[in-house]
Amino acid sequence: MDFPVYLYLGSLRIHPHVLFESLSYFLGFRLYLWTRRPSGMSGLMSLQILAGTILGAAIGAKLLFWLEDPAATWEELSRLNILWGGKTIVGGLLGGLIGVELTKRWVGWSHSTGDDFVYPLILGLCIGRIGCFLTGLDDHTYGTPTTWITGVDFGDGIYRHPAQLYEIAFLILLAAVLIPFYRQSRGKGSASSTRVSYTSGRMFQWFMAGYLLFRFVIEWIKPTLHPYLGLNNIQLACIAGLIYYAWLIRSKNNLDQKISSTHMKA
To answer: Which residue of 13, 73, 124, 212 has the lowest C-beta tally within 10 Å?
Structure first.
């Protein structure tokens, strides 16, 4: 296989990254529209929250990328160069989270909105990673050299971990693990699981915790700089996110236990 793997539509040659990234946004959003639950949110409020999410994701993805190599970033800035290229998924997710939470406070919406985004995000990430894999070395998302049977030669004669395919496999597994949360969020769980009302947002919390943990681990087999006491920019962001979600999940579990105790006494 020659990388990048271009796709052809008649005489038109399409770069795989452009095609699959576009598909990830389009199909992910379509899945969201198809599966989202009625929320009672006004159309204007929905647009405001969506705008906050997109803005936060764009800023987070760019800022975290700039921290990958602080020296190179500073050199570019000192030359008055504009750093347009590069972005990170982890930065986009965490930035989008901050953006949506700030916007919800601004517009006065207190209910959780994350659960409906879980499967659209998983679909979008999987499709996007296909494009990353087919792009090859130019995408800089591959892993370190390996002798594993999974190793892939991206065109320079060196077999490397196909980190993009590892991520797709993990996301599919995570999607299966989260099915019980999805059913509970829509009131379809078993009698025992629905005895206590489902806490909105729990599914998104476990998705984020799982994905951040995976990204923290897989960064060890990526040929990126690790200038922060042996860690890289992605791992630092993952640690911050995991601390936040560990606290949030524990708080939700304590709340569920109190509700369960109240129901038993009643």
So the answer is: 13
